[in-house]
Amino acid sequence: MQLKDIATTPPLNITKKKAVAATKLYAKKIETLQYRLLAQKKYNVLVVFQGMDASGKDGAVKKVFRYCTHNGIRVEAFKKPTALEFDHDFLWRVHKVVPRKGEIVIFNRSQYEDILIQWVHGWISDKKRDRRMKAINAFEKNLQEDNNTIILKFYLHLSKSCQKIQLTERITEPTKRWKHNDGDWEERKHWAKYMEAYEYVLHNSDILWTIVPVDKRWYRDYVVSKTIADALSKLDLTLPFEKEKKFTPNI
C-alpha cells in the first residue's frame, strides 16, 4: 500500500448534506456512550490523531466530541520534548497521560512523533526506528490487555495541494493567522519523506489505523465520528444500578 494510491477526497456516492446530518447523530451517540463509559469505569478509550500539518486534527476533536461532557474527556498534545522528557525514554511522557478507567483521552499527535519526525530528519537510524516501533506495539498491547483500553488510531490523509491551500489561508485570512508557523512550510519540503515514514508506521502497527480522507473536512468528521460511535457501541456499557429494581420509599 502506498498513500499516493489512496484518495484524499470523499467517495462520489456520499453527499455533504447527508454526511453532516449523520455526523451530528454520531456525535450525539458518542455523548450518550461517553456518559455510560464514565459512570461504569470498566473501559477506557485512547483516540490517536496523526497527520501532516493542516490535516485538521484540532477540527476533528472539536466536531466529533462537541456534545461530550468535559468530565471524563481530555486532550493531550505532543510537541518537541522538553529537557526533562529528553532525559527519559521516549514513551515516558506518553505513558503518564494515558486514559484511566472510564476516561476518553485524545492524542493530538502521539508516540508516533518519535518515529516520524525524528526519522524524517535523520535524527534516528532505521535500526532505532524499528526498535521504537516494536516498543510502541508492545506499549499499546499492554494498554489493551492490562487496562481494558480501546485504542482507535486515525491517520488524517491530506493531499499536498490541499495542505498548500490550508497553510496559505493561515497567512491571508486574519481569523486564521494565529495558526501560522513558518516551520510548517519547512516541514512541507520533506513531504515525500513523511509519506514514506507514515507508510512505514501504517504497515508495521499491530493495531490497524483508519485512513481518513480529509481534503473535505465534512467527510473527515463523518468517518471519525462513525468509527468511534461504532466502536463504543460494541462495548457492554451499562450504568451502575441500571438493571436493579427501582427503589420506592415507603412513606
What does the secondary structure layout of this molecule look like, with pairings?
Blueprint lengths: L15 H25 L3 E8 L5 H8 L8 E5 L5 H4 L5 H4 L8 E5 L4 H8 L5 H22 L1 E9 L2 H13 L9 H7 L2 H14 L4 E5 L3 H17 L18
Parallel strand pairs: 1-3, 1-4, 2-3, 4-5
Helix pairs in contact: 1-10, 2-10, 5-9
Can you walk me through this structure?
The chain is of the alpha/beta class and 251 residues long. The chain has a single domain (3-233), classed as Rossmann fold (3-Layer(aba) Sandwich). It has 10 helices and 5 strands. It has helices at residues 16-40, 57-64, 83-86, 92-95, 113-120, 126-147, 160-172, 182-188, 191-204, 217-233; strands at residues 44-51, 73-77, 104-108, 149-157, 209-213. It has a 5-stranded parallel sheet with strand order 2-3-1-4-5, with helices on both faces. Helix 5 packs antiparallel against helix 9 (191-204). The longest helix is centred in the first third of the chain and has 25 residues, at 16-40.
